[in-house]
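Figure S4 source data
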Amino acid sequence: MRIVILSRSRSVFSTQRLCEAAEKRNHIVSVVNPVGCYMNITSRQPLVHFRDQVLEADAVIPRIGRSITFYGTAVVRQFEMMGSFSLNESVAIARSRDKLRSLQLLAKKGVGLPVTGFAHSTHMTQDLIKLVGGPPLIIKLLDGSQGSIVMAETHKAAESVVDAFRNLDAHFLVQEYIKDPDATEIRCIVIGDKVVASMSHGSRQSERSTGASSEKPEVIKISPEERSTAVLACSTLGLNVAGVDIIRSNRGPLVLEVNSSPDLRDIERATGKNVASLMIEYLEKHAVRGKTRTKGRG
């Protein structure tokens, strides 16, 4: 099978592991930087060019950074129009990268979520803070390629951050902080309809918001409810493969994020599982030319 991995560099750990796994299973692998691609938009013979080559692929593995989501998903969509099977389809990737849209879809499906408020330059700061149960709380700026996550521990801090975002004329989420002292964040890797690996992923939301962590990732046993929640979150967004971050709470598992290009380094080292090979196996079982649900639409 001819596999194109869309990634900035072959030296990136996850990309390197996917290359190794695919080549070990006798597939022909090319790593292509999506921003270096250009496309021939035509109904007769859509093509993807890279340098002086026309790319052809039976399957595509998108490893698209958040900062290039728009262009990267356009390249994936072009491959879909050419009949290539994508491990994660363009529409599903875009859906997962839109924090608000993904939360709305998950909520509609009944997936457990932290209480979340959405606003744009609102003057109802007190009501917004009250909506999510008051401080401490998490505030997420949605604009920009990476966004910004801030933890506000007091009312005054929360008001200051909301006011700052309001002055930026920005869209932002205000989200409850899970106060359960036993709250543990879990990273689940979902492939198809199964959780193939899981590990602890920090112990508190505050660590998540600051980027710090007091724990090394380690294997963690998840409950049947946590397992089904991760699988449902992945399928709701239309993804075949995802990293689903869940936090345990006294009202059950709550989904924090669904990542369409999960990093493989920590999960493989913590669990000892060859997740990259499992992803290639999924392609082998499901990659049929033209078998794309969206056919490049959306």
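Figure S5 source data
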Amino acid sequence: MSTSSALFSPLTVGGMELKNRIVMSPMLMYHADADGHVTDRQVLHYGARALGGVGLIMSEVVAVNPSGRISGNDIGLWTDAHIDGIESIAEAVHSCDAKFGVQLAHAGRKSHLDGCVGPSRIAHSANSPVPAELSATDIEAIVEDYAQAAKRADAAGVDCVQIHAAHGYLIHEFLTPIANQRRDAYGGPLENRARLLLDVVRAVRAELPDDKPLLIRFSGDDHVDGGVTPEEAGILAGWLEEAGADFLEVTSGNITDTYDAEVYPAYQAKYAQEVGRATNLPVGSVGSIHSADLAEYLLRDGGLDLVFLGRALLRDPFWPIHAAVHIGIDPPLPIPTYARATGPFERGF
């Protein structure tokens, strides 16, 4: 078989060595218990994709404090009691020769629980509650929540940490004037609106070993008048690099309850490409990346370093094996017996 494939070539991000360029995108499962502890079903969910050959498995949103959950069944890392559950996922993923990272987040005004908060008293939608406005002291406490959650993630043996600063959650709310109309040090010009994110990045970076990479997911375009623009995203990328980020995943939209931009295969890759030109950091993209051919193009000629797959891996946990067969290279087989299923279809049982 041919051995030429960008998709299945290794990549080193910080001190994390990936066997291929396929990342399982963070996707909410809502299957933790009521106290934020990982359940067996979640371990199986992530382990199945690692067994299928994915290089890097990213967790769903992991809440940094109880009020920062999206739902009552989000995974948490606000106490040491949560460490064992994260460690159980990491161990399952590592047993399949894959890497595992956690995505830390605070839901902000998108929380479905009582007591949601935000940068300003502006609801996410007509059907959402009006959040309480965070004080400067509250914000400083949330930065510390991120730092302590990162410290616990490191203790759990994860390979990387990602800060979720997109899709309308708290940090994204601070970044965009759509949700942030503050008049203090956290509102107004971009450098003020970015203060929370940059403070979180520096605080988390300080809790991680130097060789454990810090990834950032942020918006390249809000698709709303007055929101974050691609130009601002490029500026922010430079600041994130200076603050200690190792990798940038660029997405878009969701600061409101509608997405008004066109959706097509790899529709968000252009934002990662633009950010990639504004920074020396490696970049990746998510969004309707379903085919191996498209993934190969994005990595070879599309300016991306990693491709993040969501729905494709929900439909087919063994997408990497099938992609390798399609490309014409030896498929990643954590269990050698799987080779019996990669040849021509045989009738019968």
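DSSP finds eleven helices and 13 strands in the chain. The radius of gyration is 20 Å.
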